[in-house]
Amino acid sequence: ASSSEGRDGADEVVLVDICSGRCSVGEAQLVLHPSIRIIAFDIMTEKEFFDGLPPHMRNNPNIRYRKLDVIFLTLDLIFDILWHEFNLTPSSIILYHWSPMCETMSRASRGKGRHRWESGHPRSQKARAHDERFRHVLSMLVQVANLMPLTCISVENPLNPIFPYFPEVQALVGLDGWVLVLRADHCMMAN
After folding, report:
1. How far is CA 73 from the centre of its chain?
2. Whole-model pTM?
3. How far apart are CA 153 and CA 177, in angstroms?
């Protein structure tokens, strides 16, 4: 199959965007795959999600959004949406992208959040909740890698001293198919 086709040879490819925010990964993928289907998950309302998209994406019939706390996200749910909304199977998924909640991990809060101890361990209830969701989603993505080894998985990590030292991340470093990239230019993806 060519790079614009699914693994089964169909032109129907899918992005699963977890904690999608404004769907910037979806926007970049639309450049590469104009007919890509996007299944996006986040905690904002559906109106907030679609209102936050660039104008050219707002009425795209190939974008589906689900308001969902990722602690409840499962592969069965993703596959169910894929089948019922697009009549496609998991082999159509070319990319799972996940942008973990950065409020409790990122240095972007400039110290205002105080969600972590100096050791990186969670200090606030919110950090503990985010860590639980981090472990849940990462575990699900490991399942994806085991079930569908040709599917690309990307996890966008905020620049911080916490993400790379999660034991679950460290366990993946060095395994076949897993690469830890600490810095990347996300803007280049859209160019």
Report:
1. 12
2. 0.87
3. 10
